[in-house]
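Duplicate of #3305? Posting structure anyway:
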């Protein structure tokens, strides 16, 4: 993925230079409209070479420009005057392309070639540095966030308690509203309890073949932010899933709360006191097989203002 990201960025920089070359040719042929169009694209391709490194790309020119302005000019990576040059190129290109009787000015076309040259030579050393950094990062191991997948098939061998303790230490490291830490963790290796937990819902069956099951619960005593309690529990649950992955174990979250009927069924199996509520069921074990995580990164879900 990283390799592809750098590769695409390099291609866009190359495309920027090609557009610039063709802008110069059109200028020499006195084709000012076309020259303006090409030098604008030279600028746009150079911007895309940068934004792609953040995995941001769009068919909408305005979206690329506003992303670049916000994250690269607004943060002083590139000088503030850059936005003005981009804006002017966008306007001139729009006139040259869409206004029927627009006569492109020779001076404007010459100026825009100079601007595109300036932007490309400003961006190029920055890109070279980022490409090197990204290629170096690629050599580092992936974090559990990018390798975790839900595991529903487990090997029939136990998980030593030292692993469970690490997992629960990770759970309790989670953030919680006003630091209320509402969690209580039930851990069981009892085949009868595990079998009953696996029958709580049609979706809880993956628990059946797990050597150990963790049931994160919360208490209802003296909570300062009771309305936030399930958010706290979800964050602790994510830490459990990530730490299990980090240790080479597999796990899956089986949803229980906020469905009262399921919460009551789990409470009955675990004999929870009245003030304890079941949040989820998490089977943990050594995975039978590991699959790669699907890449769910979707730039269109990022809305830049
Ligand atoms: C709130 C919640 C409830 C879930 N409940 C179940 C469940 O009851 N049974 C199950 O097999 N997986 C359950 N999952 C796991 C999802 O199916 C799984 O995370 C999703 O398909 C994405 O796959 P991945 O975890 O491998 O990335 C649940 C996940 C969440 C976040």
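Output from current build:
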């Amino acid at each position: 993925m990283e390799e592809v990201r750098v590769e695409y960025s390099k291609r866009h920089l190359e495309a920027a230079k090609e557009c610039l070359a063709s802008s110069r040719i059109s200028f020499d042929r006195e084709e000012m409209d076309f020259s303006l169009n090409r030098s604008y694209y030279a600028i746009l391709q150079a911007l895309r070479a940068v934004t792609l490194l953040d995995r941001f790309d769009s068919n909408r020119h305005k979206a690329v420009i506003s992303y670049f302005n916000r994250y690269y000019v607004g943060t002083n990576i590139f000088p503030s005057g850059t936005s003005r040059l981009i804006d002017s190129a966008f306007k001139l290109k729009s006139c040259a392309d869409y206004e029927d009787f627009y006569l492109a000015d020779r001076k404007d076309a010459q100026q825009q070639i100079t601007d595109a040259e300036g932007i490309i030579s400003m961006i190029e050393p920055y890109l070279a540095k980022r490409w090197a950094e990204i290629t170096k990062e690629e050599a580092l191991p992936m974090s559990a966030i990018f390798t975790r997948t839900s595991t529903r098939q487990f090997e029939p061998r136990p998980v030593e308690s030292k692993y469970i303790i690490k997992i629960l230490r990770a759970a309790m490291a989670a953030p919680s509203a006003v630091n209320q830490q509402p969690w209580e963790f039930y851990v069981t290796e009892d085949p009868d309890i595990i079998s009953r937990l696996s029958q709580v819902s049609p979706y809880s069956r993956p628990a059946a073949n797990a050597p150990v099951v963790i049931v994160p619960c919360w208490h209802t005593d003296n909570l300062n932010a009771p309305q936030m309690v399930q958010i706290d529990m979800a964050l602790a649950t994510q830490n459990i899933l990530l730490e299990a992955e980090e240790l080479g174990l597999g796990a899956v979250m089986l949803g229980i709360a906020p469905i009262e009927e399921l919460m009551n069924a789990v409470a009955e199996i675990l004999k929870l006191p009245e003030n304890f509520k079941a949040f989820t069921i998490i089977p943990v074990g050594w995975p039978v097989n590991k699959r790669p995580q699907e890449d769910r990164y979707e730039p269109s879900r990022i809305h830049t203002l």
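Confirmed duplicate; merging threads. The domain at 161-285 is CATH 3.40.109.10 (NADH Oxidase). The chain has nine helices and six strands.
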